[in-house]
Structures
1.
Amino acid sequence: MNFEGKVAVITGAGSGIGKGIARVCSEAGMKLVLAGYNSEPLQALSGELTNTETLCVPTDVSQLDQVEALATSTSERFGQVDFLFNNAGVGPTGRTQDTSMEDWRWTLSVNLWGPINGVQVFLPLMERQGFGHINSTASESGLYGTSHLAAYNVSKFGVVGLMQSLERDLRSANSPLSASVFCPSAIKSRILDSMRNRTPESVAKHQETEEARQFTAMIKPIIENGMDPKEAGRIVLKSIADGKFWIFSHPHVPDTAMAQAVAMVTDQTLTNL
């Protein structure tokens, strides 16, 4: 697949996986639309990618009108969009019984409604063009729900379902478009600091517990020592070029999903993770 001169829209581009994907797309010769909740990290990344034509568009992906504005800005600047990377995400921790309704709302609005809004807005543009690819970042948590991540798990399961439905619908229509889903394990990012992108009113309704604090402290060093985001970006772009739908950062992810599926079929039990 030739990426040279193609246009990529990347949400959550200001940090983590989104920044890694942006750097790899830049090296591949693509033009980039960098979208994120805050402008400053986008501008900093744009300044770093000196050999790439970039457009920075502050965007709250949970808001349909802002995603529509993102598409309008992209079309006005570049006239087309070849790749959409629905990557923006948040990661509050908490057991099912401890998750407040506001935590559910905020997590699903970004992690699930963000990709839904992206598909809803950008898919028609790509269909009119007759070409395009949509990739969404889910998580290993979208394949096997772990403890202390109730809202996050549900949102990422939804992303996996969305992308499976989209790819099968495109196939049934013999569409030239395609889709893929990225299910990473630990990637070095600021996912545990995502509360920074939350309104004070929403934060006030967050339900913090000692169990959640202990879980966050346990996984923090795992995230801090996770895969380099740029390596994750390389995996994503190469997998898209190879025509893969399922994209994994670590081999244990599909292995764990397979072990759960085997237990489900053989004795209908839920595996321990």
2.
Amino acid sequence: MTRLKLAFMGTPDFAVSSLRALADAGHEIAAVYSQPPRPAGRGHKERLSPVHAYAAAQGWQVRTPKSLKSEQEQADFAALKLDVAVVAAYGLILPRAILEAPRLGCLNVHASLLPRWRGAAPIQRAIPAGDRESGVTIMQMDEGLDTGGMLCSERLPITDQTTASDLHDRLAELGGKLIVGALRGVAAGELEATPQPDQGVTYAAKLEKSESQIDWHRPAVELARQVRAFTPWPGAVFPLGKDRIKLLEVEAVETSGPAGLVLDDALTVACGEGALRLLRLQRPGKGAMAAKDFLNGFALPAGTDLLQGKSP
């Protein structure tokens, strides 16, 4: 294997698997770039990103610029004299000067089967859309939004039980495996990028807090996907009195009734089409609990109208 001098550019947990895999493969980590520390928690104490924390523990140089647009940042990057840069969910736009500085360019670990789900939230958007598969694409980066040529990809199934957390973890591990193989092929001159097809392009917009609201008029199957895709964030919630109840696990079932009506004592709620059985829920300030335990301290008898947020 050719040992490459590289910079790694990433921020969340998803990227840590790729960074670890590159180090385990014996590549030289010349520098790690990550988003600056952000205030977090009740005390608003600055917290390192997962990539930053992992890299610092290994003793690697970590850089956290707010932007890469300045001439000084670009000069500092070029001074590393890299063979390649690997990018995974970094969160900053790479200007042309950055893209062209490494000898082999910049490779991106993207959590979708491009050109489907370009953009910020490919894992979460695939599930509500009803996709039956996802995957990782290793891409040669250009100045567009996930528009570069594809070096390799691998698929993973999405089932009716797949959550965003499950898919995230599987794709993260797959990304680490694929980027090591892609670097081997690129360094040996055996792997060339293939342009993305013009057909099938979709965009995975950034998740918004406003998307957490459950709309009981929608089909139960769609709401079940929403719960699986938006847990833990932005969540899937519905109002009940002064509380906002979070749904953590649900099941679509074939029964019907007026949308939002609790149909039985097992917490089956009618939807626009079909019904949703609520399996695990969480009240504000409380831990997650199974439906039967939830009902011990919070009555939701049959006939409760969740659209009105009150019992009969």
3.
Amino acid sequence: MVQKSVQWFMIVLGAFIYSLGLNGFLVANHLAEGGFVGVSLLLLYKLHIQVGVSFFILNIPLLIVAWRLFGHEFVLKTAVGVIGVSVFTEATRHLQVPTHDPLLAALYAGVITGIGLGLIFRTGGTTGGSDIIARILRHYRGLGMGKTLFAIDFIVILLVMVIIGKEVAMYSLVALFVSSRVIDFVIEGASSGRAVMIVSDKHEEIADEIHKQLDRGTTLLQARGGYTGTARQVIYCVVSRDEVMRVQRIISTVDPTAFVTVNPVHEVLGEGFTYDGEPSSIARRRRKLFS
């Protein structure tokens, strides 16, 4: 029950922060957005219809369709996001920060709206609009959500370019890009990392150095060379982003000819990242070594 309450609170908080970025920097500096918010901004600039009102009205038919297709939990979270954005956008419409530098406005708008949307998405909520359309098209046509969301944003920004002007569209694209990066950061948080795979004949030495210097665990995977057919072991290790260079230095010292791949990991759970329980055997051994 407590966890559910926290989720609802985070959706409301995210909607409030998003509205601050929307009014404070986008509306204040006559910039635009993607998706249904972008459509609402166009209606504001050309027909003087308030963003909160038009955004809520545009989402009503989509929420009805989503209720029939996706069930009440998704729709309830989405409805809270939609109502939150609509209400807070109206409540904060006078909190504006006009500036003579539209690039600065786009950057600030991207950061603040990204934080707000990240909090909403992190709890499984949405702000409706494009997201519902993308889910409906995936349900009926099997289209990928990413492609649909991109197509909708592209169409809206294209309308902004035609109706308002190309400079506004370009600055709005900057805000969209920054917002997407901030959303990723909020969702992934400090739990993101890098997965390192190392192919080397000196795998035991490399693994031991990783254990001693980084206090990170490793996994040895059985593999076979595709060309030579030689059996060998591959080291698999997940480290934080700031530890990648240290791993590379270890590898270059022990075996400069080792084959290494580094891949981003969007979420890492467990000991060394999110688990604060008893230390591992590696950590205990290291403490004994330096005590």
4.
Amino acid sequence: MDVLPRILGEVLLRQLPHPLIFENRAGGVGVPGTEAVIRAAPDGYTLGIGAMSTLAVNPALLPHLSYDPARDLVPVAQVFAGAQAVVVHPTVPARSMAELVDWLRANPGTRYASAGPATTPHLAAELLARRLGLVLEHVAYRGSGPAMADLVAGVLPMMVDSASSALPQARAGRVHLLAVTTAARLPGWPEVPTVAETVSPGFEVVGWGGLVAPAGTPTPLIEAINAAAQAGLRDPMLAGRFAELGAVPMPGTSGVFAAFVRSEMVRWGEVVRAADIRLEG
């Protein structure tokens, strides 16, 4: 959520008349940063990075959420879709998703790590478990780094992680990468199959992010910023750097992004409620 928008920002410097300043508002499952965007003047000078968590998950996860994405924000342009990866410790006797599913069915209650409750990796694992009828125990960590460290150490046998975090560990041979959660194989890792083609047809989960503006931002400004983003997202340099991180650029109109956000709100709201996911983990 930090690196990929900054890559776009490097390209946008050639498209926009003003320099870009990135400001991180960490913590609070993205609520403080989102609130800062909502409170900003709707003049096109303050934008936010809206994510799956802040736009689609938080409305179902947080009963007293201070904002309504549909009311308080305007989608400007989707920026990226990032793959998740299913990885296991080398001691797990599985070298394919089919073998992993067989092993998990023979070992109900297997513990798996995630970057935290209601994160994209956690939701991806929950959705896969529900689709396949697996009984798993979720162990939530405070971030991907500690979770991956324990996976590498063999404390836990498996996890779903962002591809940008998992790929370096797989390249180093510390974990085995069994599949990615995108609809199609990753350009940088064409030998790695997808979950959909192996054990769960139609399965797709991506972490995503895009530019949002405060409600009331004039439509001509939204369209101008979107046009600059489209030029940046079609830059071959950007596509190459995204691919290194297991992500793909997602060009499209603001209307397309808005429709996508609405569909993701419905989808992940159902998963959060069905799985009774809470921030306590």
